[in-house]
Amino acid sequence: MNPNADLDDLIREPREALDVEVKEWLDLSDHDHRAVVAKEIIALANHGGGKIVVGYEELPDGTFRPAEPRPENLHPWSQDNIQAIVAKYVDPSIQCRVLHRASPSTGEKHPVIVVPGGHRVPVRAKAGSPDQKRLVANRVYIRRSGPNSEEPRTTEEWDRLFERCLQNRKTELLEA
Q1: CA atoms of 142 and 60, how far apart (whole Å)
Q2: pLDDT in tens, 39-66
Q3: 168 burial level (CB within 10 Å; 0-12, 13-18, 19+)
């Protein structure tokens, strides 16, 4: 059995869900674009983990196609660059994985950022975007139906976030 079959499916037929965010190509030399990636990482981490699939544009019918213009290379989408984004913007720091998966139809590779879940505390932004609109320092972001990455607005959304964190601390709390 192929352990990356779900990644291959996402590249073949991208779709957004609470645990999957699809993004067009972003210029990772732009600090606002770096903050966009950080916001998605924070929201997915607080959701329990997920994936960011890069290089697709959404069509009016909700389907996706490869976005243009495609960058000349995927060097900016390296493990080190994504971890540098995490180091600057995400608290507590988390270890994401970056995979480059080839599209079966075009053969072109697309980055997939795998965001871990299982955090014992809410993950927050430790720095904001230069415009202080895309990402605001000291704010917590979650995944909301749509799917969107936004701040929790209701008591129920905060409760779900804290419940996930407490479940992740369960063993530690029981031993105490």
Answers
A1: 25
A2: 999 999 999 999 999 999 999 998 999 9
A3: middle
Name the token pair of 107. 């053969």
Give the model confidence (pLDDT) of 65-124 as tens digits. 999 999 999 999 999 999 999 999 999 999 999 999 998 888 899 999 999 999 999 999
Task: Give the integer Cα–Cα distance in Å for 83 and 11.
Answer: 22
| Alpha carbons 173 and 176: distance in angstroms, whole number | 5
Q: Residue 17 has what DSSP assignment?
A: B
Nearest one of 18, 151, 152, 74 to 82, comparing CA atoms? 74
Per-residue pLDDT, 3: 55
Alpha-carbon distance of 150 to 140, in angstroms, equals: 8
Which residue type is seen at 106? T
Taking Cα atoms as reference points, which of 91, 95, 55, 47 lies closest to residue 73? 55
Inform me whether the pLDDT recorded for 35 exceeds 90. Answer: yes
For 139, phi then psi, to 5°, come to -100, 150
Count of CB atoms situated within 10 Å of the CB of 171: 9
Count of residues in the chain: 176
Please enumerate in sequence order all residues whose Cβ is within 8 A of that of 131, keeping only pairs 6 or more positions apart, or say none. 32
CA distance 142 to 145: 10
